[in-house]
Amino acid sequence: MKAIKSFALRALGTVMFSAVPGAGVGAVITQDWLKGAEIATAASFAVVISYLGVMLAWNGTATLIDIQEAFRTAAAKAGDSNTEVKETIAHISETPTQG
User: Fold this and answer.
1) Distance CA 99, CA 86 (A)
2) Domain ranges of the chain
3) Distances 22 to 7, 42, 57, 59, 93 between C-alpha atoms, Å
4) Distance between terminal CA atoms of the chain?
């Protein structure tokens, strides 16, 4: 149950960090903001699915840590082309976590 909750919350975060910038790009390039949001979100989830697929093929299992790392990889990849995401990751990395 904990893995499902973690996956759902991280999926929501992935939609949040990828859909808005994608909508902006889509509105400018294709005059279709919704299509831009869909493409950017799909690209982010492709990273997550690829990462988890490799983990399953390599280890035969996917742990909670693997799910966490898959979504972190997607965020880092998005940070390559989005300065806001990159700055947020840098800030989060410097901030100590609780618990």
Assistant:
1) 24
2) 2-90
3) 22, 10, 31, 33, 24
4) 20
The Cα 32–Cα 70 span in angstroms is 29
- Asked whether 23 and 34 are in contact (CB, 8 A), the reply is yes
pLDDT digits (tens, 9 = 90+) for 45-87: 999 999 999 989 998 988 889 889 999 999 888 888 878 888 8
Q: Strand (E) positions, 30-88?
A: none
Backbone angles phi, psi at 97, to 5 degrees: -90, 155
Closest CA to 24 of 42, 14, 46, 39: 39
Could you tell me the pTM of the whole model? Answer: 0.74
